[in-house]
Design a protein that fits this description.
2 copies of one chain form a homodimer. With about 350 residues, chain A is of the alpha/beta class. Chain A is built from 9 helices and 15 strands. In chain A, helix 2 links the parallel strand 5 and strand 6. The longest helix of chain A has 20 residues. Chains A and B meet through helix 2, strand 6, helix 3 and helix 9 of A and helix 2, strand 6, helix 3 and helix 9 of B.
């Protein structure tokens, strides 16, 4: 076995797999924000033509996978593996959607870190020779998440200023062993970090230490520095978690000048009433599969460190007064010169 | 990239990773059944000395991981990856337990197929050179599952004759690139199969077609036949699902003579009032990590096809009148001659 490990938590990929295509489908609110032109489809119907929001979420996943496959000129049943998961209990949003694919399926639960987790596993499977083409797909839906995690929507509960807004959207990336597209060059898998924060309306603060831990480890393991990337983007720490990560690096004497967060990018804080920004598996998924993939295709972005973050609590653990464990996986993506 | 694929859904591992140690911890009922002497610990306290069953389940996972690591002479923080998941919403049982490990973590959701899913991914990560040692760990708890999926325990609901009994137990396998122990030689990842069964009290029937599909594909992909194994064991189809798989093979003209199911093995159907047998992530996990690992160590079992099955529905999808999607991943395990 060839050792591909680099430091404690990072692997480098000797035959970097390629992100040959991606698709991003979003809801009305996401399709009205600052990056509204960077998605493939905006769906005004929150039910996605289904009878329930949950079925609608599955329909959105299915449509997103099919679109990404079409762009990559592959049929879903030709995929060697699909890596997917979502926020619905028992990850039902993903599982019900992927019934139609007739492709081997690995179900994941990484909360809002799922886009990075699925990309990481897909990339290692391809680099290792276990697959030629994989799909990494996730998403979330504001209405299914609100009623599962918080209150019935009709209740009209007031949101705290620290709350984030769960993105309605699905993002899918096709990863292949050949073809054009940005390459996945290294992966830093995250540990579960829990510094004791219990406020489920302040997930940015709960997840920021996990993001800091994974990013810091990535730089240590690879010998790279933040300036080696054009952009470092975390998952959905939002307007509260983002400055915490910056400050944690500042305490180490490192000023991050090229650092943003998908929860800040997707909505207009002033105009869209989202409080602390976007969240949900779909947030980093559609920002990557929609906006950032286009940035790379347009030659505006060459080296990206994509670090999606997840908060791993449940309503039950919150009721039992537990704190919030968090995780962050980082994937380094580079546009290779032709 | 070396192609390690073999047929549509199978990969063969060129440097077969080794199951260097395992641990199985069970509750009182499991520790009173026919394989009661084949576990490491039986815990009579359903709370595992915690305040809630959910925290108890996490405590059980933590104890199980630590014990398996100890047997394999490794510290949890030396593991390159932990692959884990469970049945609690948001897979909280696993996530909260793994906070203490300080090891990179990939969260999975495969319902009761999680033991095979985690073993499969761990094995490919090691064979591919991305890791030296990984833990594959899962489990379930009767009390947390009953109140999440069915009724409050105090309600004392009558169970249908087709119902299975969720195992309280956790099983962990340490997979390494060197050392003694049975080797993982091939993996057949399953597709999601849904033949339209909606009765959530008859999960054996819902999962049997997925087990049949994966097993049949495994034999086609590898050119092996059922007789090439000493034992083929499915996850937790129980007393109703097991004969369905046998009959589906019979229709193909194949008589399975060496086929059993973990849901049948773990409980005594006559004496333990479990109706259709055991279920839950912990069922196949403790039968493998406890009983079957011992069988292999004792020289009684040399070639095992371990095919854990999962039903991917949720209480929400059932209320929305959805059918039950199922999955089965198969892992071939062989004792190599010294």
């Amino acid at each position: 076995m060839t050792n591909k490990r680099c430091g404690r938590q990072t692997v480098t990929l000797s035959s970097p797999p390629v992100m040959t295509a991606s698709a991003a489908i979003v809801g009305q609110k996401e399709g009205s924000g600052p990056i509204k032109d960077r998605f493939d489809q905006t769906e005004p119907d929150a039910y996605f033509a289904q009878k329930t929001w949950e079925k609608g979420e599955s329909s959105m996943f299915e449509r997103c996978l099919n679109l990404a496959c079409k762009k990559s000129n592959i049929q879903p049943n030709q995929l060697d593996y699909i890596f997917s998961g979502d926020l619905q209990n028992q990850c039902a949003g993903a599982a019900y959607a992927m019934r139609s694919t007739n492709a081997p399926y690995f179900g994941l639960y990484g909360a809002c870190s799922t886009m990075a987790e699925s990309l990481a596993l897909a990339a290692m499977m391809i680099d290792g020779g276990y697959a030629h083409s994989c799909a990494a797909i996730t998403g979330s839906h504001f209405c299914t998440a609100e009623r599962q995690y918080r209150f019935p929507l009709g209740y009209g509960g007031v949101r705290t200023p620290t709350a984030q807004w769960t993105v309605t959207g699905s993002g899918c990336v096709i990863v292949s062993d050949r073809g054009p597209g940005p390459a996945i060059t290294s992966i830093t898998a995250g540990k579960i970090i829990d510094l004791g924060i219990k406020d489920i309306s302040n997930m940015g603060a709960a997840m920021a230490p996990a993001a800091y831990d994974t990013l810091k480890t990535h730089f240590e393991d690879t010998g790279r520095s933040p300036e080696d990337y054009d952009l470092i983007v975390t998952g959905d720490l939002g307007h509260l978690g983002h400055p915490i990560v910056s400050e944690l690096f500042q305490q180490d004497g490192v000023t991050l000048t090229n650092y943003d967060d998908c929860g800040r990018i997707i909505f207009d804080r002033e105009k869209q009433d989202v409080h602390a920004g976007g969240s949900g598996c779909g947030c980093s998924a559609v920002v990557l599969a929609g906006h950032l993939m286009r940035q790379m295709q347009e030659g505006k972005l060459h080296k990206l460190l994509f670090a999606a973050t997840g908060a791993l609590m449940s309503p039950t653990t919150s009721m039992q007064k537990e704190s919030i464990p968090a995780i962050c996986h980082a994937v380094s993506i580079e546009v290779r010169q032709a």
